[in-house]
Amino acid sequence: xxxxxxxSRMLCADMVDVCWTAGGRRNRTTALLEDISVHGACLQFEMxxxxxxxxxxxxxxxxxxxxxxxxxxxxxxxxxxxxxxxxSEWSRSRFTPEHMLDLEQLVxxxxxxxSKRVN
Length: 119
Known about the structure:
Layout: E1 10-22, E2 25-37, E3 40-45, E4 54-59, E5 62-74, E6 77-84, E7 99-102, H1 103-118
Antiparallel strand pairs: 1-2, 1-4, 1-7, 2-3, 3-6, 4-5, 5-6
C-alpha cells in the first residue's frame, strides 16, 4: 500500500472501544490502536469494516470521530485506516496511548549519539 500521509505517525499499542453503524445496525467492539497521527489512525480489528463508515474511537473520557478510509486483511486481522473528522483531531496532550513510539525522535536521538561518537 502506498504511503500518503503528510504528517508523521506515532507507533503505539493500546486497546480502544469503537462504535459504528453499518446496515442500520449499531456496532461496538474493542480494537487495537496500531498507530496514530494528527489526522488519522490505524486500528486492528477481528472483523471487516465497511469503507466510508463513520465511527467513534473511545478511550476513557476521550472520543475521536472519523471515517473508514481503508480496510485490509493481513495474517492476524483487519487493519483499518481512519481519517479523523475536523474538530476531532488527535493530540498527545489530549490522549497518549499506553505504549507509544515516536520514530522521528528515535532517529534524531540515534543521529545525535552517532555524531558524538564520531567527534
